[in-house]
């Protein structure tokens, strides 16, 4: 076996094997072809869930059936609601802190930018960013190693049956929360989504088990959920609630857990996760309705679409069948660039691991990883502050008129807040037609790079802004954002990749839309209004997201929920499908690649492996086809001399442990040890 296969057998406690059919009956529908029961932690005494594998004629099994209670599910729904509420409050808190820190950072340098003092502005932005990155990276490296970088591959591996230490303890929760908030606020090209999935899973685990060894808390409530199957269900719901809270997309959160995170699924878990995502989104929306920057603004409980929908698209466009042609092109481009992003990110992570492993070990060896994060921040800050200097100021067309289908209603494009960088202040006046005009100018590169990624995506998705971003600014931002976000992913900070994926796709989607505008011009009639760069920016965002993650159903629903653009549903579906098919032709998804890179065992849906450029179905083989005939084993009690001899005479890194349950019993497999 190789190291990855040996790690699959590792467990913290005494294991036992269970037949796959019994495992499916016990834990629900199994998306994997095989599962190892001994990978589950057995921290509690044997519970009712662990007796289901006994034969039906067993007396112990019949006694368990007699004592089992049915129809007692109110406590499970109560816990799901509590987990959703807690995750929603955490999501609200995360957004508020990040927005406040970003606003504070750029308010400090606003006057320096207006005066053209870019060097001092760079020093201030870098200084504040360094303070945040040093704390963020230090927490990951020295406080909670399980928090690096996003925790999402670890959650996927755990829910597939792999035991991972320290993944759900309180130190990991605190460190991941603070680290991801500071990393995003510092200006690194990353997002909150991956860490929020991890944080939601931790809350799902902690609130359902009601005990913590770190804090010394062991509450005598709801003890019937302290088993592996129920624990996994609450972790799955918490992970879905994390996505629902950060995107305000409850259906998307549910489908994300079904499509990407969870390996074991049934209809009961779907309903409960649905309720958990509902409570998470409702809590985040309720708190965000009246609080902004931790300041009460009134209108508590009034859900404004502009605040609730993350990238709200106001002007929906009628779609022509010709729009499917550039959509297919965007899908192919998303698959190609997504596969390139995955390949480049995995190579960077491998080089990172090889470089740090080659350095001499010392108590301060982890500081080398911290210095890499500082270097990434310096490059990112230099790009965001100095690059807009080379771009001129561009007038803002704040009142554009478009006729709707009835040729009578006129819509004025609302004036948006754009970073003016060093451009002159604007003046405004009211024209004879009653429309308010302005001579405001803005810097295209500053609008795309200076503000956070969410604001940049909102600019790119906006409809009716055909010529506000040119080829030069879009191509420049695409090149730098692609490289820097790929470098940042996997560094020693808790960070996510969803916002960078959406942003990168929106940039090249906008470029394709701009090419169509250059060919056909700005169309104002109802049959040509679909030629809009904002429409193709949203399609491009979905295509690149799919090209990297290979998500389909959940991604389509998330895109509709975060934009409110139901008119583009078919175009988004087509782009997502094409991007996934093209990306799968070159490599696996980013999350699957990270699972292999981190040596986290994962049993896929189909038991297929690639061997010598051929695909082999593992169901055609038996265990003896891959087993060594003379296995080196360890007993439960060994002396140091025999262990030292075994380590010196073998080259592999994992050994089976055997023992006798009873003195007269044959030796049975107990687990493996590294």
UniProtKB/TrEMBL annotation:
- SUPFAM superfamilies, sorted: Clc chloride channel
Q: Which Gene3D superfamilies match?
A: Clc chloride channel
Residues that span the membrane, as ranges:
77-98, 118-146, 167-189, 234-258, 270-296, 317-344, 370-391, 469-490, 502-522, 534-560, 566-586
Indicate how the chain sits in the lipid bilayer. Answer: Multi-pass membrane protein
Q: Which UniProt keywords apply?
A: CBS domain, Membrane, Repeat, Transmembrane, Transmembrane helix
Q: Please give the Gene Ontology molecular function terms for this protein.
A: chloride transmembrane transporter activity
One Pfam short name: Voltage_CLC
Q: Which GO terms describe its cellular component?
A: membrane
Could you tell me where this protein is found in the cell?
A: Membrane
State the superkingdom: Eukaryota
Task: Provide the protein name.
Answer: Chloride channel protein
Source organism: Callipepla squamata
């Amino acid at each position: 076996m190789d190291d990855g296969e040996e790690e699959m057998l590792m467990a913290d406690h005494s294991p036992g094997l269970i037949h796959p059919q019994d495992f499916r009956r016990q834990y629900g529908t199994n998306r994997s072809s095989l599962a190892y029961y001994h990978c589950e932690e057995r921290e509690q005494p044997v519970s009712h869930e662990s007796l289901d594998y006994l034969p039906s004629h067993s007396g112990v099994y019949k006694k368990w059936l007699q004592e089992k209670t049915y129809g007692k599910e109110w406590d499970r729904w109560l816990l799901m609601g509590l987990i959703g509420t807690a995750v929603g409050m955490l999501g609200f808190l995360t957004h508020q802190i990040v927005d406040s820190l970003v606003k504070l950072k750029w308010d400090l340098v606003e006057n320096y930018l207006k005066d053209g003092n870019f060097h001092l502005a760079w020093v201030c932005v870098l200084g504040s960013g360094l303070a945040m990155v040093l704390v963020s990276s230090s927490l990951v490296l020295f406080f909670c190693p399980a928090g690096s970088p996003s925790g999402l591959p670890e959650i996927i591996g755990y829910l597939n049956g792999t035991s991972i230490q320290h993944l759900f303890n309180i130190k990991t929760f605190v460190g991941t929360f603070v680290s991801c908030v500071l990393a995003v606020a510092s200006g690194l090209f990353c997002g909150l989504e991956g860490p929020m999935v991890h944080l939601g899973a931790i809350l799902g685990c902690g609130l359902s088990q009601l005990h913590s060894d770190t804090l010394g808390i062991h509450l005598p409530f709801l003890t019937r959920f302290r088993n592996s199957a129920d624990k996994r269900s609450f972790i799955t719901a918490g992970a879905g609630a994390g996505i629902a809270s950060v995107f305000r997309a409850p259906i998307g959160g549910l489908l994300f857990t079904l499509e990407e995170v969870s390996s074991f699924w049934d209809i009961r878990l779907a309903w409960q996760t649905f309720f958990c995502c509902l409570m998470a989104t409702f809590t985040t929306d309720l708190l965000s309705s009246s609080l902004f920057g931790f300041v009460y603004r009134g209108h508590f409980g009034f859900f404004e679409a502009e605040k609730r929908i993350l990238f709200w698209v106001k002007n929906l466009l009628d779609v022509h069948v010709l729009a499917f042609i550039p959509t297919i092109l965007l899908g192919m481009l998303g698959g190609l660039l997504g596969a390139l992003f995955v390949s480049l990110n995995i190579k960077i992570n491998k080089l990172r691991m090889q470089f740090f492993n080659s350095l001499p070990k010392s108590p301060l060896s982890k500081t080398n990883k911290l210095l890499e994060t500082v270097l990434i921040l310096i490059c990112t800050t230099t790009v965001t502050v100095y690059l807009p200097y080379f771009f001129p100021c561009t007038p803002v067309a704040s009142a554009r008129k478009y006729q709707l289908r009835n040729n009578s209603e006129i819509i004025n494009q609302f004036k948006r807040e754009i970073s003016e960088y060093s451009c002159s202040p604007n003046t405004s006046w009211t024209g004879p037609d009653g429309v308010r005009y302005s001579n405001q100018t803005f810097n295209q590169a500053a609008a795309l790079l200076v503000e956070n990624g969410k604001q940049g995506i909102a600019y790119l998705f906006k409809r009716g802004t055909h010529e506000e971003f040119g080829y030069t600014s879009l191509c420049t931002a695409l090149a730098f954002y692609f490289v820097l976000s790929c470098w940042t992913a996997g560094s020693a900070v808790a960070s996510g990749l969803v916002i960078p994926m959406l942003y990168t796709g929106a940039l090249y989607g906008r470029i394709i839309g701009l090419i169509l505008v250059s060919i056909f011009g700005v169309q104002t009639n109802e049959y040509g209004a679909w030629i809009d760069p904002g429409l193709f920016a949203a399609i491009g965002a979905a295509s690149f997201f799919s090209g990297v993650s290979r998500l389909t159903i959940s991604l389509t629903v998330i895109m509709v929920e975060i934009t409110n653009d139901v008119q583009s549903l078919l175009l988004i579906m087509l782009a997502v499908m094409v991007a996934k098919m093209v990306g799968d032709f070159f490599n696996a998804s980013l999350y699957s690649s990270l699972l292999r890179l981190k040596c986290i065992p994962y049993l896929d849906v189909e038991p297929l492996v690639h061997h010598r450029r051929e695909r082999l179905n593992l169901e055609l083989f038996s265990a003896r086809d891959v087993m060594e005939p003379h296995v080196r084993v360890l007993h439960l009690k060994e002396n140091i001399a025999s262990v030292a001899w075994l380590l010196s005479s073998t080259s592999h890194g994992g050994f089976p442990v055997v023992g006798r349950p009873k003195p007269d019993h044959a030796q049975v497999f107990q687990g493996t040890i590294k």
